[in-house]
């Protein structure tokens, strides 16, 4: 039999039934106001907000609790410049045909292009890495499991944390992202997963109308 040790669950808050509904409804309404924004104000973001957003992300469930993620906060000007140059070069190839017509057509309503100034100038730029090997302690080198699922959930929790702080975010995935290992000094067995950009929105920032079209509850769920 398993020889694992269990400890009591720390108390979690309980609420009267109606208050539970109210709390989850408030949370959902707030989260539904989250927007992906591409124009950031230059105003700096308190380092404690970034640390707490990483702390929130690091609480995500993960395969065998190996926590297969690393968050590199890119502050250095030269690294940001290198990041922007490498990403824009990939994006130029992407937008000038590599993506294929179907993908480019799908992106048209967003109005995005290869120009990525936020990679240099946004107040917060975090490169998220997924670790192929690791363990419950950073010194371990065991195989990791459900890496994409685990890191994806952690990223979602980070976006939620920034939103709760009153900031806007952008998930960015230059393709391919190999160059990020070099920019961020990360080992070859880590895979760049996505960039999370955060900050205050620029004055007059806009979002594409397309982004406001959301599927209904009936569209996205079934009770069987
Ligand atoms: N990485 C490119 C293209 C892009 C792809 C998808 I799918 C998007 O939802 C948005 C953009 C870029 O960032 O421009």
Could you name the key traits of this structure?
224 residues; alpha+beta; NADH Oxidase; four-stranded antiparallel sheet; 8 helices; 6 strands; globular
Describe the overall structure.
A hairpin with a 7-residue loop joins strand 3 (133-134) and strand 4. This protein has a single domain, classed as NADH Oxidase. It has helices at residues 17-31, 47-57, 77-98, 101-107, 118-121, 147-164, 179-184, 217-220, and strands at residues 69-73, 124-131, 133-134, 142-143, 168-172, 190-199. The protein is globular. Helix 2 (47-57) packs antiparallel against helix 6. 39% of the residues lie in helices and 14% in strands. The model has no long low-confidence stretch (mean pLDDT 96). The chain has eight helices and six strands; from the N terminus they run ααβαααβββαβαβα. With 224 residues, the chain is an alpha+beta fold. The protein has a four-stranded antiparallel beta sheet. It has a two-stranded antiparallel ribbon with strand order 3-4. Bound molecules: 3-iodo-tyrosine. 3-iodo-tyrosine (IYR) binds at residues 91, 94, 107, 110, 112, 172-175.
Helix-strand blueprint:
Blueprint lengths: L16 H15 L15 H11 L11 E5 L3 H22 L2 H7 L10 H4 L2 E8 L1 E2 L7 E2 L3 H18 L3 E5 L6 H6 L5 E10 L17 H4 L4
The protein binds 3-iodo-tyrosine.
What is Rg? 20 Å
Q: Whole-number average pLDDT? A: 96
Give the distance, in angstroms, between the N- and C-terminal Cα atoms: 36 Å
Ligands bound to this protein structure: 3-iodo-tyrosine
Given the structure, what is the number of helices?
A: 8
């Amino acid at each position: 039999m398993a020889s694992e040790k269990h400890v009591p669950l720390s108390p979690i808050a309980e609420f009267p039934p109606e208050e539970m509904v109210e709390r989850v409804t408030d949370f959902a309404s707030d989260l539904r106001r989250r927007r992906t924004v591409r124009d950031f104000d230059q105003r700096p973001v308190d380092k404690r907000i970034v640390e707490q957003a990483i702390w929130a992300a690091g609480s995500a469930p993960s395969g065998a609790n190996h926590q297969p993620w690393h968050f590199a906060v890119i502050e250095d000007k030269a690294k940001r410049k290198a990041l922007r140059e490498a990403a824009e070069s990939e994006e130029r190839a992407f937008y000038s045909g590599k993506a294929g017509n179907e993908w480019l057509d799908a992106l048209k309503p967003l109005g995005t292009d290869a120009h990525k100034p936020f990679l240099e100038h946004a107040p917060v730029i975090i490169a998220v890495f997924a670790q192929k090997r690791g363990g419950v302690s950073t010194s371990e080198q065991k195989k990791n499991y459900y890496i994409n699922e685990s890191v994806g959930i952690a990223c979602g929790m980070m976006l939620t944390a920034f939103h709760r702080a009153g900031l806007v975010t952008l998930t960015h995935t230059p393709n391919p992202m190999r160059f990020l290992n070099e920019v961020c000094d990360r080992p070859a067995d880590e895979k760049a997963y996505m960039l999370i950009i955060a900050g205050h929105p620029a004055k007059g920032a806009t979002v594409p109308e397309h982004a406001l079209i959301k599927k209904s509850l009936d569209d996205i769920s079934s009770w069987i």
